[in-house]
């Protein structure tokens, strides 16, 4: 993570860290492993993403399956679901300075405020160029990074190499294989060689 503060990436990391802490503490609290704090207080003052994605589960009690009495409780979502929620917020994060300028312009015309949701991720500084090395900001760049030629995801060469293209070279791997136990008492293996295409960003 680059050292430049106030970007959408640092906002995302802060949100994930806070959500992870609240998720972990709340789970321990619910299991009775934490007695020094209230679970309700932890959720109220912790990650809003964790609280927002909580679901209500209910169970019926009664004769022959009737629902004479119903017991309900709150259940936390998986951290994977919380991560997807925060990823979506990251992709739609709001730059405060730009919004403030628009807010001032709109206020002069219609005196209306631009709402910012409680779960919105806000940032001040534009993200630096992560494609190019910048030692001052602690950005390694993507030159020389190994990429996946067939993937369309973030690890794919098209995206990871920032449009610069990639180099392909063959790597020879030698490893032990087809190992068998020989009585008595050692393991005999063959040496197998494989050739693999490795793609790295230009």
UniProtKB/TrEMBL annotation:
Localization terms from the record: Secreted, Extracellular space, Extracellular matrix
PROSITE patterns: WNT1
Lineage top rank: taxon: Eukaryota
Gene3D superfamilies documented for this protein: 3.30.2460.20
The UniProt record lists the keyword Secreted: yes
Sorted UniProt keywords: Developmental protein, Disulfide bond, Extracellular matrix, Lipoprotein, Secreted, Wnt signaling pathway
SMART domains named in the record: WNT1
Annotated InterPro entries: Wnt, Wnt16, Wnt_C, Wnt_CS
GO cellular component: extracellular space
Function (record text): Ligand for members of the frizzled family of seven transmembrane receptors.
Family per similarity comment: Belongs to the Wnt family.
Listed name of the protein: Protein Wnt
Lineage: Eukaryota, Metazoa, Chordata, Craniata, Vertebrata
């Amino acid at each position: 993570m680059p050292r430049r503060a106030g970007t959408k990436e640092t906002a995302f990391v802060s949100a994930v860290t806070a959500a992870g802490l609240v998720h972990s503490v709340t789970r321990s609290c619910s299991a009775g492993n934490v007695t020094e704090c209230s679970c309700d207080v932890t959720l109220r003052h912790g990650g809003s993403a964790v609280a927002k994605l909580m679901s209500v589960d209910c169970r019926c009690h009664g004769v022959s399956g009737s629902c004479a009495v119903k017991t309900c409780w709150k259940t936390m979502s998986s951290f994977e679901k919380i991560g997807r929620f925060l990823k979506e917020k990251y992709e739609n994060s709001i730059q405060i300075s730009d919004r403030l300028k628009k807010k001032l312009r709109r206020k002069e015309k219609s005196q209306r405020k631009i709402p910012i949701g409680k779960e919105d991720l806000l940032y001040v500084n534009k993200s630096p160029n992560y494609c190019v090395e910048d030692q001052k900001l602690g950005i390694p760049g993507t030159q020389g990074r190994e990429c996946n030629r067939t993937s369309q995801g973030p690890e794919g060469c098209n995206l990871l190499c920032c449009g610069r293209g990639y180099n392909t070279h063959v790597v020879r791997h030698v490893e032990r294989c087809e190992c068998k136990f020989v009585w008595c008492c050692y393991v005999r293996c063959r040496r197998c060689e494989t050739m693999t295409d490795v793609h790295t960003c230009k």
